[in-house]
Amino acid sequence: MQATIAAAATAATAATAAAAATTHPSLMRLPPLVLLLLLLQQQQQQQQEQQQQQQEQQQQQQQQQQEQQQQQQMCVDGPSSPFLNEEEVTESSTDR
Question: Would you list the domain boundaries of the chain?
Answer without folding.
Answer: 2-95
